Amino acid sequence: MGRRPFSLSAYLAYARGRGATPTATPAARPAGPLLWLHAGGPGSARALCALATRLKIQRPELTLLVTGQPEHAPEGALRSDLPGENPAEVAGFVEHWRPQLGFWTGQDLRPALLQKLDEAGTRLVLLDARDAPWTSPAPSWVPDPAAATLQFFDRICPVDEAARRRLRRAGVEEHAIPGLGALTDSAPPLDCNDALYEEMAGVLTGRPIWLAAKLRSAQEAEEVLHAHKRAVRLAHRLLLILVPATRELAPQIAEVARDSGLRLCAWEAGEMPDENTQVVVTEDASELGLWYRLAPVAFLGGSLISGHGGEDPMEAAAHGIALLYGPNVGRHLPAYSRLAEAGAARIVRDFDSLAGALSQLVAPDRAAAMAHAGWDVITQGAELTDEMIALACRWLDEDEAA
């Protein structure tokens, strides 16, 4: 074993002086291999969940343990709090769970815990490494242990070239950062009735279409309809498909649509849109797979009016669609930021800016460019997920053979 860097030794000395914090008794550890997933930031748990779920299909004997901010967790996964950095707490966590593999996300590091896992032989992967400072529980007077802590990871996946350069400056060797990419939830597109799609595509051929998906309030629907009215002045054949997030919201949203003065088609009543239809009103999101395939542009609801936190944009992006969204997307901010940076999504502040964006995206080439950018993000995330699954299976095979 090589000599520890001074920064790490100083941090571990500091951690030894910290008192232990009371923790709940952990669940029993099942026999067999265990994969530990740490969701260190908002938005990362869903992608980790998708990765772990696919890995467990190939390795059904694998137990999953989730720590951090697990707003999503795989079915049947165990949950635990992270231990404090006191040596006794760290040792207790590692000796109890004995993970073969660990996937870590977030810029906040736990040097004592990661060092102990490395000593125990756990293979560690750092996902979604960003061009941002690394943090740890170290006080300001302790030398920063981040660079030394990064050496405990067998593989690090930076999201872009800027993040890779930061890792190199921290002393991470090139073989540990072989590629770039952000982990995304690469769920397959929603189901769609093929015969109905073919029929609707024939009915709507030649018409510009946009979708307002999963609207969360009558007020949001009113804003969307105002934007549609304005956009129709420049593209008189523009058709809006209005989809409430839940069936309970449908009566309120339908009433707002009737009061708009626009020519409506009530989908659930069996009506079909014709040349004069300006808005298709649905009652819920059960056929969203159909609408995502028909509309090249979608506004995602729960985002224009505060209080809902937005909808997951990756579901829509998986269908190859240009995305518009409001400013209130706190629940899925990392995903929206990733798509916006790639040119696949565009923020709008109110019905006026929504109408302006629609008027631009009526041009098929502009919508197609955004949709292609979104597909690139989804594809890159799927490739990274496949790579991580293959790597995990290889490491598990090596452990079994040892």
TrEMBL record:
InterPro entries named in the record: Glycos_transf_N (IPR007507), Glycos_transf_N_sf (IPR038107), Kdotransferase (IPR039901)
SUPFAM superfamilies found in the cross-reference section: UDP-Glycosyltransferase/glycogen phosphorylase
Protein name as it appears in the record: 3-deoxy-D-manno-octulosonic acid transferase
Similarity-based family: Belongs to the glycosyltransferase group 1 family.
Record-annotated 3-deoxy-D-manno-octulosonic-acid transferase N-terminal domain positions: 29-177
Pathway as given in its UniProt record: Bacterial outer membrane biogenesis; LPS core biosynthesis
Function: Involved in lipopolysaccharide (LPS) biosynthesis. Catalyzes the transfer of 3-deoxy-D-manno-octulosonate (Kdo) residue(s) from CMP-Kdo to lipid IV(A), the tetraacyldisaccharide-1,4'-bisphosphate precursor of lipid A.
Reactions the enzyme catalyzes: lipid IVA (E. coli) + CMP-3-deoxy-beta-D-manno-octulosonate = alpha-Kdo-(2->6)-lipid IVA (E. coli) + CMP + H(+)
Annotated EC: 2.4.99.12
PANTHER family: 3-DEOXY-D-MANNO-OCTULOSONIC ACID TRANSFERASE, MITOCHONDRIAL-RELATED (PTHR42755:SF1), 3-DEOXY-MANNO-OCTULOSONATE CYTIDYLYLTRANSFERASE (PTHR42755)
Example of a GO MF term: transferase activity
Cited Gene3D superfamilies: 3-Deoxy-D-manno-octulosonic-acid transferase, N-terminal domain, Glycogen Phosphorylase B
Native organism: Salipiger mangrovisoli
Pfam families, per the entry: Glycos_transf_N (PF04413)
Enzyme class: transferase
Record keywords, A-Z: Cell membrane, Lipopolysaccharide biosynthesis, Membrane, Transferase
Cell membrane found in the keyword field: yes
Annotated compartments: Cell membrane
Lineage: superkingdom: Bacteria
